[in-house]
Specification:
globular; 216 residues; 60% helix; two-stranded antiparallel sheet
Length: 216
């Protein structure tokens, strides 16, 4: 799952005490920011195995610090603490932490059994990457329903929302239909950072000019 991880960020940003949308976009993919950083150091690992799932050739065989439920909870708690120290608002901190933790729960839907509870067996994953006819409309529906929810509960110009929507569609199209890497290299991580960064910048622009509608 790629853009679907930002669905909780979009929905949560409609809350009047939530952090700004750009901050929540960081939260939605924080676990993967961490994973691709740790991939550069060798602390977590993946390899290309063509056909391992119908949609994704990556064998994510060692990622205990980010994609275990315990590891994700630690990232969520750390981000929530950061938001609390910044904003001194427990509601904002709780929202941000929940968005971080949602990453593991959404991954549980699509991953083959490579997620863990605490870094070791049992391996978990419902495997929707093997069912494109389910996963693809699900990911698009989650993301754009959440975007619609956010826009319905905020007020502001439409252009930034259109730009963000176009960027999300473009990123997902490349993810689904672009060339498949033959091996994992440092460029794998840098490409992920670029994709997450572009989406986050667009979300930050949208979040800066939208205001929560009165009565929502």
């Amino acid at each position: 799952m790629l853009i679907g991880h930002w669905a909780p960020a979009l929905a949560a940003a409609a809350h009047p005490r939530a952090p700004k949308l750009g901050t929540l976009f960081v939260a939605g993919q924080l676990v993967d920011w961490g994973f691709f950083a740790l991939l550069l150091t060798g602390a977590e690992k993946m390899r290309v195995v063509p056909g391992i799932t119908a949609m994704n050739p990556m064998d994510l065989y060692q990622m205990p610090y980010t994609h275990s439920l315990l590891g994700s909870a630690v990232w969520a708690a750390g981000f929530a603490l950061f938001i609390w120290l910044w904003r001194r608002d427990r509601v904002a901190a709780g929202i941000a932490g929940s968005v971080v933790l949602s990453h593991w729960l959404l991954d549980l839907l699509v991953h083959r059994p490579d997620l863990t509870l605490a870094g070791s067996s049992p391996k978990l994953g419902l495997g929707l990457w093997n069912h494109p006819g389910i996963e693809m409309p699900l990911e698009l529906s989650l993301t754009f329903a959440a975007l619609g929810f956010y826009l319905a509960r905020t007020r502001g110009p439409a252009l930034p929302a259109m730009v963000l929507a176009a960027i999300l569609l473009a990123l997902q199209a490349v993810n689904w239909f672009g060339p498949v890497a033959r091996e994992v290299t440092p460029e794998t991580s840098f490409l992920a950072f670029f994709a997450y960064g572009v989406a986050t910048l667009a979300a930050g622009w949208l979040g800066r000019i939208r205001r929560t509608a009165v009565g929502t």
